[in-house]
Amino acid sequence: MKIAYLVTRADPIGGAQIHVRDLTSAARDLGHEPSVIAGGSGPFTESLLARGIPTYSLPHLVAPIRPLHDFRALGEIHAALGKIQPDLLSTHSSKAGVLGRLAGKSLEIPVIFTAHGWAFTPGVPRMRAALYQRIERMAGGLASRIITVSEFDRRLALDHGIAGEKEIVTVHNGMPDIPAEHRADPGRSPVRLVMVARFELQKDHRTLLQALGGLRQYPWELDLIGDGPLKPEIAALGHTLGLSDRIRFLGQVLDVEARVAQVQVFLLISNWEGFPRSILEAMRAGLPVVASAVGGIAESVHDGESGFVVSRGDIEGLRSRIEQLLLDPALRQRMGAAGRHRYEQDFTLARTVDETLAVYRDVLEDWQHPEAHRITNAGTLYGK
């Protein structure tokens, strides 16, 4: 298959970019012909080029809604697809998803949209959620298939009328494995905690620090990996709570795997999520996870087995769960081992690639033989 991938931003590297990078590399190794179209350029496009993946950078494709930029970006997407001549287009992230579906419709190319978490998911500010829900409803019918990375997001899309039952399928994220030296030792003391997340409205560093403020009697330290506009505010809160000497603000780092291997507990405290890849990274390393009960997190972290899932904004509940792990090295080891087992069983990159390519093949089969597809659906509908 000749597959074009479209993602909104080339910088910074987030979950959608890593997903596309891993998927294109695996697809190429299996004999397919992937290309990537992205807004701008940066570490993401550089990593693709280093892997030999053809890459097209679009100057006008940006994340915010800007009608003039968006119109020009649509023309740039048309031009890139004209050069690539793909069998299908796989779009990732909201803006790329909408513009890519419009381009695919006009060029008569089948389009798959992968939703890495909906912009109208619970926890998103109400006005913003209402706007994106309306946009996704209008664009939903333009995709041959929609892939959600969690069953939570699939049900959310169905409940909001984004598309029909047959058009939406769940394929959980998967990660490539790591060498043995990047496995963690969760039983080691004193405990170092880590959270890998941008400092922005989606993530809830504030609740985390308020919970840790009540645990100063224990010898723990916290690494915060990531950048973002709210970083100064969170640093100030850490100072107010008397935690400045316990917290390291590491910024955006390139060696996340090595950093995670040095800690004993992984944290992801959020206001909303899709299906976070950072949690899979932690499980892959053999770490217990404490995370907010938002989005599809409970589909990866089994509460009480591979970690703890706590209610959004629950400071006392979060504090209690972290305290349990601080005091019990055997519990940390047991939960870390359970997480590693779940990764090996359900969240490998090979499984994600196999399931995703199966969706691609189904879409192409439907596209090339639409009459047979309609007959099959009619037979199913009427029980024939």
CATH-level-2 architecture of the largest domain: 3-Layer(aba) Sandwich
Strand content: 15-25%
Mean pLDDT: 92
Figure out the total of helices.
14
How widely separated are the two ends?
33 Å
- Helix-strand makeup class: alpha/beta
- Low-pLDDT sequence parts: 372-384
What portion of residues is helical? 40-55%
Written account of the structure:
The structure is a single chain. The model is unreliable at 372-384 (pLDDT under 50). The protein contains 14 helices and 13 strands. It has two domains: 2-175 and 349-381, Glycogen Phosphorylase B (Rossmann fold), CATH 3.40.50.2000; 180-346, Glycogen Phosphorylase B (Rossmann fold, 3-Layer(aba) Sandwich). Helix 1 (15-29) crosses helix 13 and helix 7 (205-212) packs across helix 11 (315-327). It is α/β, with parallel strands linked by helices and 384 residues long. The protein has a seven-stranded parallel sheet with strand order 3-2-1-4-5-6-7, sandwiched between helices. Strands 10-9-8-11-12-13 form a six-stranded parallel sheet, sandwiched between helices. Strand 9 (220-225), helix 8 (231-240) and strand 10 form a beta-alpha-beta unit. The protein has helices at residues 15-29, 43-50, 67-84, 94-107, 126-140, 151-159, 205-212, 231-240, 256-260, 277-285, 315-327, 329-346, 349-368, 370-381, and strands spanning 2-9, 33-39, 55-58, 88-92, 111-115, 145-148, 168-170, 191-196, 220-225, 247-251, 265-268, 289-292, 307-310. Helices cover 45% and strands 17% of the residues.
